[in-house]
Design brief:
The chain is an alpha/beta fold. It folds into three domains: 112 residues, Fumarate Reductase Iron-sulfur Protein, Chain B, domain 2; 163 residues, FAD/NAD(P)-binding domain, CATH 3.50.50.60; 151 residues, FAD/NAD(P)-binding domain (3-Layer(bba) Sandwich), CATH 3.50.50.60. 32% of the residues lie in helices and 17% in strands. The chain is built from 17 helices and 16 strands. It has a five-stranded parallel beta sheet with strand order 3-2-1-4-16. The protein has a five-stranded parallel beta sheet with strand order 6-14-7-8-9. Strands 10, 11, 12 and 13 form a four-stranded antiparallel beta sheet that branches. Strand 1, helix 8 and strand 2 form a beta-alpha-beta unit. Helix 2 packs antiparallel against helix 7, helix 4 packs antiparallel against helix 5 and helix 12 crosses helix 13. It is globular and about 65 Å long.
Length: 465
């Protein structure tokens, strides 16, 4: 007998917009056990579950949903962790609407099963039980793997290789592991205590993390290869893009990387408890339309801005940010100047005071599939601002590639790999995440990490490259 169709998701509580826009506490509250079980009952238990095909790390989604429905939360989290070492993270920041939930059978006519919310629920349930048990591991191999970068891709590779019995050391350039999870994504969207919890779980598998270690400067890849049998390169994309416009060097003009790193990793929002300066503008303009732009615009409000404005050159329909993030930004009072392109930054005594902008209309689609912004002649106008944040993208840092001449790179400095194995041009070195794609999603980086781990294991076992 077919299960009855329940059209709508169980609602998830969240802070009121007028309250949360001035604090750094997590916006959404998460499900209760009763809500989670009710939502899990919505799964149709399809014979051919498309949701799994939509998951880059291949979580057994129908399996864990059934366990949640039955109230077996321990079984559910154990099943998820067979393929996903960071479920409390992916349950919060993964773009489920375009992946697992996007292909859910219910999504054809109704709201899809809230897979992300349920993944978050079981991860948080496990944490609430106390110490998180590490799985039993088989015997250790004598071979050693170095992972460069403690971001989502690196943590995934490290967890998978440790489970397989290899000695794993992560070399992290910053003073805190997590990569973009700690420096890029704000506290109100991903609490850092949750990131630390997930990192601790990876360490419980036997992974060692060496912080404040900049590969390419502290040691080169060639030097690491003298000690390690294989290397995974997951250094992310920390080099911000700029607009190359007049006035871009004025005080008050930030890259999103710097603005968010100061606030998130360096805790500028807790000044003076943390001695990290940041410009707390009263009228802040963020240029861009992705998740990073939403994070910056919403951070500006929490730093005390009276007005936070998004300037984006296309329309809302072309905006690449998650629908949920745009919705939350709108609720909190972020303003949107759409079909608008900045032309220059202007100021007085070295301090930003305004942007000159130009209005656009939409033309034919470009290579991205989105309609191209076409400037409208003589539509120039000025927008007052005392802080501007440029959030238009980023590239990999060149530190590693400059000290590794036989490591092939492509446009924008991305490391070139065989997409089926994540092998680079350098024997024994694999790569994945933003270092091979430029700025992309957490879950895509994790998926590439899983592909790399499988290929690294085969390489270590066979010696074949």
């Amino acid at each position: 007998m077919a299960k009855p169709i329940i059209p709508h998701k169980v609602p998830m509580g969240e802070q009121a917009p007028e309250v949360r826009r001035r604090n750094y506490q997590e916006v959404t509250y998460g499900y209760t056990a009763e809500q989670a079980m009710e939502e899990a009952r919505r799964c149709l238990e399809c014979a051919k579950p498309l949701c799994m095909r939509g998951c880059p790390v291949n979580v057994n989604i129908p399996g864990f949903l059934k366990l949640v429905e039955l109230g077996d939360f321990r079984g559910a989290i154990n099943l998820i962790k067979e393929t996903n070492a960071l479920p409390a993270v992916t349950g919060r920041v993964c773009p489920q609407e375009t992946q697992c939930e996007g292909v859910c059978a219910l999504n054809k006519k109704y709201e899809p099963v809230a897979i992300g919310r349920l993944e978050r629920f079981v991860a948080d349930w496990e944490a609430a039980q106390g110490a998180i048990p590490a799985p039993e591991l088989n015997g250790r191999s004598a071979k050693k793997v170095a992972v460069v970068g403690a971001g989502p891709a690196g943590l995934t590779v490290a967890a998978d290789m440790a489970r397989l019995g290899y000695y794993v050391t992560i070399f992290e350039a910053l003073h805190e592991p997590g990569g973009v999870l700690v420096y890029g994504i704000p506290e109100f969207r991903l609490p850092k205590s949750i990131v630390r919890r997930e990192v601790d779980y990876v360490c419980s598998l036997g992974v060692h993390i060496q912080k404040d270690f900049v590969v390419g400067m502290t040691a080169t890849l060639d030097e690491l290869l003298e000690e390690f049998d294989a290397i995974f390169l997951g250094t992310g994309a920390g080099l911000p893009w700029f607009l190359d416009l007049p006035g871009e060097n004025l005080s008050g003009v930030y890259s999103a990387n710097e603005y968010l790193t100061r606030s998130n990793l360096m805790k500028a929002y807790q000044f003076p408890e943390y001695d990290t300066p940041i410009a707390r503008g009263k009228r802040v303009v963020t240029i861009g339309g992705g998740n990073t732009a939403m994070d910056a615009a919403r951070t500006a409000l929490r730093l005390g801005a009276d007005e936070s404005i998004i300037v984006y050159r296309r329309s809302m329909a072309e905006m690449p940010a998650r629908v949920e993030e745009i919705h939350h930004a709108e609720q909190e009072g972020v303003q949107f100047h759409l079909l608008t392109t900045p032309l220059g930054f202007y100021g007085e005594n070295g301090q930003l005071t305004q942007l000159e902008c130009l209005k656009n209309e939409l033309g034919e689609p470009d290579a991205s599939g989105r309609r191209r912004p076409v400037p409208i002649p003589n539509s120039n106008f000025h927008l007052e601002a005392d802080v501007a944040v440029i959030a238009i993208g980023q590239s990999p840092s060149p530190i590693v590639s400059k000290t590794t001449p036989d490591l092939s790179t492509g446009k924008g400095g991305v490391v070139q790999v065989d997409q089926t194995t994540m092998k680079t041009s350098k024997r024994g070195v694999f790569a994945g995440g933003d270092v091979i794609t430029g700025g992309a999603t957490v879950i895509l980086a994790m998926g590439q990490g899983k592909i790399a781990a499988k290929a690294i294991e085969e390489y270590l076992r066979t010696g074949e490259w």
